Fold:
Amino acid sequence: MTSAKEAFEAFIATTSLETPRIPVYTNVTGRQVTEPEAIRSALVAQIVSPVHFEDCLRNAAADNGLVDFYECGPAKVLAGLARRTERSLNVTSICEFDEIPT
Structure:
């Protein structure tokens, strides 16, 4: 994975990132990142780092008062993990565009 990390690091070095308008959490630490360079570093590091999904979920909920989460994708793996991590959260899996709540 080191070669993938190095290739991605070279690619993302030329990509412009801005300060996010919504909270962004990194799987590397499970904490919120706000500065573009910290986001860039976290994206590179996550290729070779353990995933802190439970910390991301709990911190995002606690920091922002969230109880509703949406998983976008074909499986329902993250929704299942989220339900096992924190039963008080509402997790909805969205597989198709027309499933997005309005």
